[in-house]
Design goal:
alpha+beta, 5-stranded mixed β-sheet, 29% helix
């Protein structure tokens, strides 16, 4: 097991395919303790630790078995066990190892007996010894299996990379083998054999290969259903069947969720079907968070779209136990209706109690699934066999058989009752005791539970009773199974005070709890938990008090001294994981009138403990727990408020309410705005994140203010959290027409035919953006992974690869030029389906070399009296392209089955005399035959065409969007209002008001964000309501009813958005105090940073966008230019007697007739005598004395980036892709150098040039023109540029200057630096990283050596790689360890403007960053 991660043993691990165990003590032996006592008593030696570790179910063995469980499924395992007692003293022998310790009980394991004692299991008399033959045959059998091509059982130990990498994608934290082993260990040899002969089971097992089938095993509680399920799993594994299984456990909330079941089954299938595993890995690019995705999304995307399409004849066997204990048993059964459509034959076995709910769903299953049912009750032979094996008392066979008979007769076919009865009988020592025990055995489980509860309540020692109550409170109300060590901490007990805690747990609890092989303490049965939580029994567990106690103990764990240090050392107490995940759930289930709970919660939320908790969650990549905690705090707050209103005796309840509600909001926003920063650096929560939070937030008021000396934020007007994440400025005079979000991309269509593509994480525009179709584009669509983009133009349809911008397919449209009304990719993206206004549905096979349009269906509308038929105005295809709806002006909406096509029905208005109504938008629900649409007058409708049911609701909307899972419906319209509804009941979740008209809507794949387009910009929103709804929907039991209550509580969630004038340029005065910025509408603002006050606003005529801006070195002048090529020069005078400067416009110079190309740079001379106006082709010098152009020059090279010469301010240097030019301020060329930018072509683009503080070096950032995202950094020595004076020799004399080759920084460094900002006095480069953190990097003294071999520094760490981040977005952790993170920007600061405009203001030790039309000023001492 240790060799799994050691390359030295890779070849050995790779060669292991099977293991044979010979009497191995997997679960230890009771003799270990005896042996140690003997050693101690003989005084020969002391007790040995290694002997103690062989004790029955020791923690060492449990850990060993737990590790081996994850490896065993890929191995062939044979376990031999001894059957003879080992001789200790003459004529005295004992069994060293019982069978249950020698056999692992794993699926597919072969167990065999050897006629030998513990000494003789590996010693054989001759080749004819039966024991030798048995072991030899086992070896031969293993050899045949591992060498047979058809025996592939799954990936070998060394080839687990791909299935293993699925674990973070599917959020698999624990395999099902623990539950399997728990029930398998309860199996008695000889029982359950009847199922193999049952006619229904045999028919299910022998179903023809191409068919799927379902079998339902049902029985009453306690009849051995789970043990039978484990027997069937083992039998299937022995047969070589590909079996996947899952045990639903009522005591574990996560295992009750259908989504957990599906993720586990999918992961198991990936172990045996490589093709499925590979396709599963590809869905990570769809951007779906499968941890929070609901079961329908998982079923649709993983099973129906991938698994069901794989062509394989060998069947899969699914065993699902405990369906009745699931959150929603009906939903589980409903999914099974899709099984007949699978290409892979599936054999489904479900095991549960028989309930009317499951029975009704079973009756509705399609006959093509061949549903069968078996009742497991009435098989007394299993009960008899079990009693015979487990009854350990001596006596004659007649005596024992009489006991067997009496026990079975009183059992009422309940295995649990029999098990408890046998345990009691085995404790008898006299015949009279046996008879008394038989007489006292209660009838039925209720009476037996009463007897067990009475034994706990009547314990003579009060300390034992209290301990039993404490144990049972924790076990009955824990939200997942607890380990023994976790339980001791949950009870607030010191484990060292117990002689044997495991024995105490079992002995004191009257048989209600057991400890499984994984060391988990669990209820003996689900019905035992129900009994203890009910009233009117001898020993009652009050759930409210129990949850309150669990909450307090969770808090005690999280508020322990030194927890932060232990978390940093990865030495957290075992109970911390449970406490971190579930404290808030226990809070909501406790009594709201408990003052102690309220006080502890207040202390937690007002001290550093809450930050330590967030630190732990971030370190475990469990930030989603913050969202659930937010919802739990909201629920507790409501309950507390109701109680306070009734009691009226808590004068501080308003303050408490405000604190809890504030943190409820903070938790959600921390995930949305700082989630990535926390994943990279969990410790950022203490000092780096609180200062960036709004001033009215609890985290800022309690923790952020105190960090003002280190980091202080100003310039942001919002004092509360807002829902804005980003704003995407499209830079176009035309309004956008549609928006799509899929995978990791967001696409916006801007007429006539440009598609802008953005990364949905960083909102950086893709290098291939915009994609230009070349003509008017009517519609666009992304496939599910965002790898392909379809654009339907007037004459042609094109398919683009979004990564490269390459046009993969270009096809002429139909000759009639019929307008397209809907466009979709098929699930596997091998075809494009469109619906045109001529009522025809066409397809394009993308797998063909030269595809052409093929007609799929023509909708021949039937004329209705009084309605004339026109061309279609709207067509909607459903997700799987089986249904289509068509709308026509003045004609009712119609629905069709596409195969045929077959007419279904027309949608008729509900109200008498209502007009037919023109449908302007409609979408199908992705998982049901239900259509949601909008009429022209703003009325939304839900229509079920098969049922003929229609619901109408007025909403004043004109745009419609539905989420991928169908749970959310978004509407927008001319009034600028966006409303988000739950589709199930059209309950309002969220409302956003803004001034601009809504032109399009889209949801993110995970439903936590939505996008809208309003004119020439797009916005990204992440409301609390959506994040909480996504979490709540995944967790709730009854989704429909819970959504109703949830939407009711969230109906007041609303937000407003002010109109934003996007910042286009930003500059700060080198003299300090003042900075300025220009906007899209042509306004220039001047701000006093010391006062946080706007001191001047200037708006030139024409409202043209401001493009360039620059300050003079002395801060006396600021100049700027607009798109009309007007240059404005303004003087700024700071009067010592006043805080506000005097600002005057001293010149407005029109350069349109002088410059060629756009103005790309403004540059002041160091003494403010001249100003250079630089375009892509020309340079003009303007004298500030005469305010006129004095010199001009036209360049013969590509666009250059200009700076003042670092060592001679009388010169300027221009950096181009091939040459570096040095000019005087009279624009005469002094020198020209060829430059070799290693790795870049002749037409490279130079983005910026920075000078080090000592002016000895220059840093240049450049890239290919067709790939602006992949930038390279080059380091120049300033001495390379000879500092000539203005009297230098002529150009002709110096034209042959030597070429300059700079040091090229390693690609790993360049790609991590998104934007170099400045050099500080210590020689460190301050930069904005690709993760939008502001970092510093100490330039190595010997940069040449570093560039050849960039060795990491172990002392600094910025990032912790996250397995859930795809490789495309994963940071280079080795390189990042060389960087020091100063602070990370909030998610809603991240935008294209931020990437291009943010700057370091050295004199003020500040970082300036544009944000939503304002400039955020981050004052940080570490910047300089």
């Amino acid at each position: 097991m240790q060799g799994q991660n050691d390359p030295q043993y890779e070849s050995i691990i790779k060669a292991i395919s099977g293991i044979i165990f010979l009497a191995t003590p997997h679960r230890g032996t009771h003799l270990a303790e005896t042996l140690n006592r003997i050693l101690q008593s003989t005084m020969i030696t002391n007790p040995k630790q290694y002997i103690s570790e062989l004790a029955k179910n020791s923690l060492t063995l449990q850990r060993l078995n737990e590790q081996f469980r994850h490896i065993a499924p890929r191995l062939e395992i044979v376990s031999f066990y001894e059957t003879r007692a080992t001789s200790i003293i003459k004529n005295i022998g004992i069994m060293i190892l019982e069978k249950d310790s020698s056999v692992l009980g794993y699926p597919g394991e072969t167990s065999k007996a050897l006629d030998a004692d513990h000494h003789g299991v590996c010693k054989y008399d001759s080749p004819n010894d039966p024991n030798y033959i048995a072991v030899r045959n086992a070896l031969m059998s293993l050899l045949k299996k591992v060498t047979s091509p058809s025996s592939w059982k799954g990936p070998t130990l060394s080839s687990r990379k791909e299935p293993h990498s699925l674990k973070p994608l599917l959020t698999i934290t624990e395999g099902p083998t623990i539950d399997y082993s728990f029930f398998r260990d309860q199996w008695a040899h000889g029982t359950c054999e009847w199922i193999l002969q049952d006619e229904m089971f045999v028919e299910w097992l022998q179903t023809p290969d191409t068919m799927s089938s379902l079998l339902w095993l049902n029985g009453k509680a306690g009849t051995g259903k789970s043990v039978l399920a484990s027997f069937i799993i083992n039998n299937l594994a022995k047969r070589g069947c590909r079996c996947q299984y899952f045990f639903i456990r009522f005591g574990d909330q996560k295992k009750r969720a259908l989504s957990s079941l599906l993720r586990s089954i999918a992961h198991q299938i990936a172990q045996v079907i490589p093709d499925f595993s590979q396709k599963l890995l590809e869905v990570i690019d769809e951007g779906i968070d499968y941890e929070t995705a609901d079961h329908r999304t998982i079923w649709e995307r993983i099973f129906k779209s991938i698994l069901f399409t794989i062509e394989e004849r060998s069947p899969l066997y699914w065993i699902v136990d405990g369906v009745d204990e699931a959150h929603d048993p009906r939903a589980t059964m409903r999914l099974l209706s899709d099984i007949p459509y699978s290409c892979i034959p599936l054999r489904i076995l479900i095991v549960s109690r028989r309930s009317s709910e499951i029975g009704s769903a079973f009756q509705k299953l399609p006959s093509t699934l061949n549903p069968r049912m078996i009742s497991i009750e009435g098989h007394l032979e299993d009960l008899q066999c079990y009693v015979r094996q487990e009854l350990s008392m001596p006596g004659s066979s007649e005596f024992k058989e009489d006991i067997v008979k009496r026990v079975v007769e009183g059992s009422q076919n309940n295995f649990l009752w029999v098990r408890l009865a046998v345990d009691k009988l085995n404790m008898c020592h006299r015949l009279a005791d046996v008879e008394a025990a038989l007489q006292e055995l209660p009838t039925g489980m209720e009476a037996l539970y009463d007897r067990m509860a009475a034994s706990v309540a009547q314990n003579q020692l009060s300390t034992n009773r209290n301990l039993a109550l404490s144990i049972l409170q924790c076990v009955t109300c824990s939200l997942r199974d607890l380990k023994v060590t976790e339980l001791s901490q949950a009870m607030d007990e010191d484990i060292s005070d117990f002689l044997d805690l495991e024995r105490s747990i079992v002995d004191l609890c009257g048989g209600f709890v057991v400890i499984d092989n994984g060391g988990n303490v669990t209820m003996i049965h689900h019905t035992a938990r129900e009994y203890l939580l009910s009233d009117n029994n001898p020993f009652h567990v009050d759930p409210s008090n129990a949850h309150g106690r669990m909450f307090l103990n969770c808090m005690k764990c999280l508020m322990a001294v030194g927890l932060r240090a232990k978390a940093n050392r990865n030495q957290k107490p075992g109970f911390v994981d449970y406490a971190s995940n579930w404290w808030s759930s226990h809070l909501t289930l406790s009594s709201p009138d408990c003052e102690q709970i309220g006080e502890v919660l207040k202390r937690f939320l007002t001290s550093h403990y809450v930050l330590t908790w967030i630190h732990i969650l971030a370190g475990n990549n469990q930030q989603r727990v913050l969202i659930q905690a937010s919802q739990d705090l909201s629920n507790y707050c409501l309950e507390r408020q109701v109680w306070n209103e009734k009691s009226k005796d808590n004068p501080n309840h308003t303050m408490e309410q405000d604190l809890i509600e504030s943190w409820s909001t903070d938790f959600v926003k921390l995930v949305g705005k700082f989630g990535k920063a926390l994943r990279r650096n969990p410790e950022a929560i203490y000092k780096l994140i609180p200062p960036f939070c709004p001033q009215n937030s609890s985290i800022y008021r309690i923790f952020g203010k105190g960090e003002a000396k280190s980091i202080a934020i100003s310039g942001v007007s919002t004092e509360n959290w807002d829902d804005s994440v980003a704003r995407l400025s499209l830079g176009s005079d035309r309004d956008a027409s549609s928006i799509r979000a899929s995978g990791s991309l967001v696409c916006v269509l801007v007429p006539p035919g440009n598609v802008f593509i953005y990364d949905s994480s960083t909102f950086e525009e893709a290098t291939v953006s915009p994609i230009k179709h070349g003509e008017w584009v009517e519609r666009m669509e992304l496939n599910s992974t965002a790898s392909l983009l379809a654009t339907y133009g007037y004459r042609t349809t094109k398919i683009w690869e979004t990564r490269t911008g390459h046009c993969k397919v270009s096809v002429d449209n139909i000759e009639s030029r019929s307008r397209v009304l809907d466009i979709q990719f098929t699930k596997n993206s091998n075809a494009l389906i469109v619906g045109n206004e001529d009522r025809r549905i066409r397809s394009l096979d993308l797998g063909q070399q030269s595809p052409t349009w093929q007609l799929l269906a023509e909708l021949e509308e039937l004329g209705l009296d009084g309605h004339s038929l026109h061309s279609s105005s709207h067509i909607a295809l459903n997700r799987d392209r089986t249904l289509v709806a068509a709308a026509h002006p003045g004609y009712p909406l119609s629905a069709w089955e596409l195969d045929g096509p077959v007419y279904i029905d027309h949608c008729r208005r509900n109200r008498e005399g209502a007009a037919i109504g023109e449908v302007v938008d409609a979408v199908w629900h992705p998982y049901s035959p239900e259509l949601l649409g909008l009429y022209l007058e703003g009325i939304i409708f839900k229509w079920q065409p098969y049922e003929g049911k229609t619901i109408e609701t007025p909403m004043r909307a004109s745009r419609l969007a539905i989420s991928r899972d169908g749970k959310l419906l978004g509407t927008g319209g001319a009034h600028g209002i966006v409303q988000i509804y739950a589709t199930s009941n059209l309950g309002l979740l969220y409302q956003l008001r803004s001034q601009d008209i809504v032109l399009g809507l889209a949801f993110s794949p995970d439903n936590r964000r939505f996008y809208d387009i309003r004119g020439h910009y797009a916005s990204v929103w992440e409301p609390n309501a959506l994040m909480k709804f996504a979490e709540q929907a995944d967790r709730n039991v009854e989704i429909e009813s819970e959504i109703g209550s949830f939407t009711h509580s969230l109906s007041t969630y609303s937000s407003s958005s002010r109109r934003i004038d996007s910042i286009t340029v930003l500059a700060a005065s080198p003299a300090g105090r003042l900075y300025s910025y220009g906007t899209e509408t042509g306004t220039v603002h001047l701000v006093n940073a010391h006062m946080g006050k706007l001191v001047d606003t200037y708006t030139p005529k024409g409202f043209l966008s401001i493009e360039q801006m620059s300050w003079s070195n002395d801060g006396r002048y600021v100049c700027f230019s607009d798109t009309g090529k007007r240059v404005f020069i303004r003087s700024v005078t700071l009067d010592p007697g006043t805080s506000e400067p005097t600002v005057k416009t001293i010149a407005e110079i029109r350069m349109k007739n002088l410059t060629k190309g756009p103005i790309i740079q403004l540059l002041f001379q160091h003494n403010s005598k001249n100003l250079l106006v630089i375009s892509s082709i020309t340079i003009h010098a303007i004298s500030l004395a005469t305010l006129s152009v004095t010199n001009s020059v036209e360049l013969d090279t590509a666009e250059l980036k200009w700076i003042v010469h670092p060592q001679d301010p009388e010169l300027i240097i221009g950096f181009g892709s091939k040459r570096i030019r040095i000019l005087g301020w009279n624009l005469e060329q002094i020198q020209s150098h060829a430059v070799n930018f290693e790795g870049l072509a002749d037409h490279a683009v130079v983005h910026l040039v920075l000078t080090t503080q000592d002016k000895k070096h220059l840093l240049v950032q450049a890239s290919f023109p067709h790939n602006l995202r992949e930038k390279t950094l080059y380091y120049f020595e300033t001495l390379k540029f000879s500092a000539f004076s203005v009297d230098a020799p002529s150009v002709e004399q110096n034209s042959e200057a030597v070429a300059i080759t700079p040091i090229t920084l390693p690609r790993d460094v360049s790609t991590e630096i998104a934007l170099p900002l400045s050099f500080n006095p210590h020689g460190s480069l301050v930069f904005l990283s690709r993760n939008f953190s502001v970092c510093s990097w100490k330039i190595p003294p010997d940069l040449n050596t570093f560039a050849a071999n960039p060795t990491p520094s172990p002392s600094r760490s910025v990032a912790v790689p996250n397995p859930k981040i795809s490789n495309r977005h994963k940071p280079n952790a080795v390189v990042e360890r060389q960087f020091k993170e100063l602070f990370s920007l909030p998610g809603d600061w991240i935008s294209r403007d931020c990437l291009y405009l943010c700057t370091i203001w050295g004199v003020e030790k500040s970082f300036l960053c544009p944000r939503n039309g304002e400039v955020a000023v981050v004052r940080c001492a570490a910047l300089v």
